[in-house]
Design a protein that fits this description.
The protein is 25% helix and 36% strand. It has 439 residues and is of the alpha+beta class. A hairpin with a 5-residue loop joins β2 (51-58) and β3. The chain is elongated and about 105 Å long. The N and C termini lie far apart (98 Å).
Length: 439
């Protein structure tokens, strides 16, 4: 290459370097705006715990005002006084406290009508502990996509906001009010009374579960009583249909199903349930009004005494008993547990066989509760459990059609399947000594 070509190449290289330096340090204003717009614009950034009052108003409707009480729980104070659904309010607060737009539409809006913000579809007034007030306005849906126009009062900017954010904020009175018909927590209930057309059943909480007190003292099925208590304490008013005058009319025309009374740390609360055709209605002593309720509540409170009785003959549950005895006339079987091993008459027994027998005894369950039918004891079972602290004895009277059993110390009878005695004797006979491991 001659000197003239070399000089030209150096000049071109310097020129290109200068252009590159200038372009890196003098970006066009449009490019800078595009880069900054990649981050979603922030509309609201608040401390959720510092918000102490909200007012939500839909176009044409009275605003719903919520105030945080001293306990930290939210209460509805307008248009009427109601307890608030704490979870629903928390969802609104979570959205408002960190609200970002999809994009900035207008930096200096002069005509709000084109966005539907001159008469907003939703207005949210927010007050917080710093005594600052913010007002969020939600307008029309944007022409394309699933966004809605939004702005803050006093701020000329208009944004688009994702529709799901609007759905999280746009709540009415029925959405925000506490729909529980009773206010007592299940764990704080010590007594339950269920009064239906034919009987009154009363339950008391005891150390290990529940006891039936009325119509007479009986063993209760803890899981069934717990389900009744859970269903009643979580009963909620259905405000989507059959509310207001319709519910009052439906309740007045309905037939009584049952009245449930819960007694606990807040005194007594009562729920009256009625049925009109296929619909159930309820009236509570804890909240005013009558309401349509879920069918499950109606079917749960319609249960009778036998539904709540403990049908199991033995209470040792899933704990391994310490000893089990079976007697049939002059024949007897004895099994003693030592650690994980079972022994009988000084012989180590096959554990699988004994456990199968134990399972069969554990699963003995009444099919009904007869008033009579027990004559002489044909079979007796004794189970010692809880490290010797509990002894249960059951006698069984066998007939051609059924086996009738009774627990020691209780007058009530339990009807079992007709083969119960035969099956138990066969299971006991099937237990064999443990096979010694070969050396």
């Amino acid at each position: 290459m001659n000197s003239r070509g070399l000089i030209i190449a150096v000049v071109v290289l310097l020129a290109l370097g200068g252009v590159l330096y200038w372009s890196n340090h003098h970006k066009p204003s449009g490019q800078s705006t595009a880069t900054n717009s990649a981050a979603p614009p922030v509309i609201l950034k608040l401390d959720q715990n510092a918000i102490d009052q909200l007012s939500l108003a839909r176009k044409g409707s009275a605003p719903v005002t919520l105030v945080k009480a001293g306990s930290g729980k939210w209460q509805i104070t307008a248009p009427e006084s109601f307890g608030a659904d704490q979870d629903e309010v928390s969802g609104v607060l979570a959205t408002l406290s960190s609200l970002s737009a999809d994009r900035l539409v207008d930096n200096q809006a002069s005509d709000l009508k084109q966005y539907g913000l001159d008469d907003p579809s939703v207005t949210v007034d927010i007050q917080s502990a710093d005594h600052k007030e913010r007002k969020l306005l939600l307008g029309d849906n944007a022409p394309a996509g699933s966004d809605v126009y939004a702005m803050l009062a006093g701020d000329p900017r208009v944004f688009t906001l994702a529709e799901f954010n609007k759905s999280s904020i746009d709540k009415d009175l029925n959405d925000l009010r506490d729909k529980h018909l009773l206010t007592m927590a299940p764990d704080n209930v010590s007594r339950v009374s269920l009064q239906n057309k034919t009987e009154t059943i009363e339950f008391a909480r005891i150390k290990d579960g529940w006891q039936i007190l009325k119509p007479k003292p009986l063993r209760a099925d803890d899981s069934v009583v717990d389900e009744l208590l859970r269903t009643v304490s979580e009963a909620r008013m259905d405000l989507t249909g059959g509310a207001g005058d319709d519910a009052a009319k439906g309740f007045a025309q309905a037939s009584p199903v049952a009245t449930v009374t819960l007694t606990g740390d807040r005194g007594a609360q009562t729920l009256e349930v009625r049925k009109n055709k296929d619909d159930y209605y309820a009236r509570s002593s804890a909240v005013g009004g009558t309401y349509k309720v879920d069918t499950n509540l109606g079917t749960e409170v319609a249960k009778g005494l036998d539904d709540f009785r403990n049908k199991k003959l033995f209470d040792f549950g899933y704990d391994d008993p310490n000893r089990i005895e079976l007697h049939q006339g002059a024949k007897a079987w004895f099994f003693l547990r030592n650690g994980s091993d079972w022994w009988s008459n000084g012989k180590k027994m096959d554990s699988a066989g004994v456990e199968s027998l134990v399972d069969q005894v554990r699963d003995l369950q009444a099919t009904s509760f007869p008033e009579s039918g027990f004559s002489n004891s044909d079979f007796e079972i004794i189970v010692v459990s809880n490290d010797g602290k509990r002894t249960e004895k059951v006698q069984i009277s066998k007939s051609a059609s059924a086996c009738i059993a009774k627990r020691e110390g209780e007058p009530e009878l339990y009807q079992l399947g007709s083969t119960a005695v035969t099956d138990l004797a066969a299971a006991a006979d099937a237990v064999m000594p443990a096979v010694r491991a070969s050396k």
